[in-house]
Amino acid sequence: MEENKDKLNLDFMPSFMTALDAASTLIDLKNIELKLPMLKTSVKVSPITTLEDLTIKSYQGSSQQYLKEVDKLIYKHTEFIDEKMKPLDFEEFLERLAPEDKQTLLYGVLRVSFPVLDKRSMKCKHCEEEIIFETKLDEMLQSDSFKEEWDKQEEVYRWRKTIEVIKDKLTIKIKYLMEADILRLYNDKGNSAIAKLLESTGKPYSQTELTAASISFLSINDGTKDIVLDTPDDIYNFYTKAPIQLQKQITNALNDVEVGEYNPVFYTNIHCPACNESEKNRFEIDDISKELLFQIYQIL
Ligand SMILES: [Zn+2]
User: Fold this and answer.
1) Which residues constitute the domain of residue 247?
2) Closest by CA position to 99, among listed 203, 187, 182
3) Domain-located, residue 6
4) Which of 40, 45, 216, 224 has its CA 20 to 30 A from that of 300?
5) Cβ atoms within 10 Å of 253's Cβ, excluding its own
């Protein structure tokens, strides 16, 4: 009986499915495990394998939609190993995703999906010969790619630091910006406004917006009472309209806060066949991801 049933199923299996089964054995894609420097937890990342993953329909290098599509892609291909991190819905994931962890995850997804980058060239800094080189993504992760891990007692997304900007008069609490905060910085901004900011500052938001977003709580005393602001809108409106001398004092206080070097550094050592010297070539994951995802977009 059993044998018969199996045979029946096999007969009914459409031939495209048999072909897909065979196709998956032709490519060597596997999951990898990575440790996130900010959440300090291990994750498994899986490769982009099918068209349904590729929802990035337009190449808008810095638009909010592009960022969110990349976030969705990362979310879909990340599996937390630690039970405490499950289940995390997409919004919770964004609230806990620090930029450094995002880079790490994006690197992981790209590495398991696209093992090799297109050939590149650079001029050797020693002999000025043109070097043409090919880079495998797994070579970019070096033993010193991660300098530090988040070392504060509170989890990075819950961390707050109280700063007394003016003694007994003005106190703020600052936070570490998560992906959800960054996405909020894009809200209500058209693509042309973003393009303008990109041109002048290299970032899709102004330093003022960034500073205001880093403040999660503000308390000011006018001599008789404490006035407390604890919503992003209130803080933003206060900060942007505050006297410039006060803004300066707040930025100075923020600049004094020491944070570690958490950003991962991806690089390879390029060997020059002409003079036999080697030099470091750094890769920006954001650029690599645009390059690779754009290629897919062109194919589709
Ligand atoms: Zn050389």
Assistant:
1) 160-255
2) 182
3) no
4) 45
5) 16
- For residue 114, report the distance from its CA to the centre of ligand 1, in Å: 29
List per-residue pLDDT tens for the chain, 300 residues long: 444 444 445 556 677 777 766 666 666 667 899 999 999 999 999 988 766 566 565 545 557 777 888 899 899 999 999 888 888 899 999 999 999 999 999 999 999 988 788 899 999 999 999 999 999 999 999 999 999 999 999 999 999 999 999 999 999 999 999 999 988 888 766 677 777 777 777 777 888 888 999 999 999 999 999 999 999 899 999 999 999 999 999 999 998 888 889 999 999 999 999 999 999 999 999 889 888 877 766 544
Find the 291 Cα to ligand 1 centroid distance in Å.
27
Separation of 278 CA from ligand 1 center, angstroms?
8
Q: How far is the CA of 277 from the centre of ligand 1 (A)?
A: 6
Domain assignment present for 276:
yes
Helix ranges, 177-300 (H): 179-186, 191-201, 207-214, 232-241, 244-255, 285-299
- Judgement on whether residues 203 and 117 belong to the same structural domain of the protein: no
Domain membership of residue 8 (yes or no) is no
User: Which residues line ion ligand 1, judged by CB < 5 Å?
Assistant: 124, 126-127, 129, 272, 274-275
Q: Looking at the whole model, is its pTM more than 0.85?
A: no
Question: Does residue 67 fall inside a structural domain?
Answer: yes
Under 8 Å CB-to-CB from 77, ≥6 apart: which residues? 45, 46, 47, 48, 53, 108, 109
Q: Are 163 and 253 in contact (CB under 8 A)?
A: yes
121 Cα–ligand 1 center, Å? 12
Tell whether 43 and 98 lie within a shared domain.
Answer: yes
Contact criterion met (CB below 8 Å) for 257 and 161: yes
If asked whether residues 38 and 135 sit together in one domain, one would say yes
141 and 55 in one domain? yes
Both 101 and 179 in one domain: the answer is no
